[in-house]
Amino acid sequence: MFSTELMRPIHPHRKFNESGQATVELAVVLPFIVLLAAALIQCGLIVADQLTVWNAARSAARAAAISSDPQFDSQQAALKAVTLRPLQVTLAVIDEVVSARVVYIDHTDLPFIGLLFPNISLEATVTMPREIPAP
């Protein structure tokens, strides 16, 4: 809709040749927005897995603290507590203290994010006093 006078637009706030500008801007920016959203999702998954590893370490340390066979029971408790696999459970018993260390290698779950987030080693260590079971 133009007036006949020097082909000026009727709407002075619009300029010539801007009809597809918003579409082009969206097409340029949208991949970055999607990549940012995927990166945020992956960060959330990593945090959730770290919390799960802490829970497995706590369960392993608790089982070892009250067990007569701490090595076996800590491994079983960690595996029962969480669904992450494979878990590496290491137990140290020094005097009356047990320390359980759990390590899990977290793999990138989302496509195209693996370049930004390579496999991450998540680990947690929990120490508890040993409660010797009564004979």
In summary, what is this structure?
This protein has 135 residues and is an alpha+beta fold. The chain has helices spanning 21-66, 70-81, and strands at residues 88-94, 97-106, 120-129.
Relative helix content: 40-55%
Shape: rod-shaped
- By DSSP, the count of extended strands is 3
Order of helices and strands: HHEEE
- How many domains, in number, for the residues? 1
- Structural class call reads alpha+beta
Low-confidence stretches: none
Main-sheet strand order equals 1-2-3
Largest sheet: 3 strands, antiparallel
Question: Strand share of the residues?
Answer: 15-25%
Describe what this molecule looks like in 3D.
With 135 residues, the chain is α+β, with helices and mostly antiparallel strands. It has one domain. The chain is built from two helices and three strands. A three-stranded antiparallel sheet has the order 1-2-3. The protein starts with 20 loop residues before the first helix and ends in a 6-residue tail after the last strand. The relative contact order is 0.16.
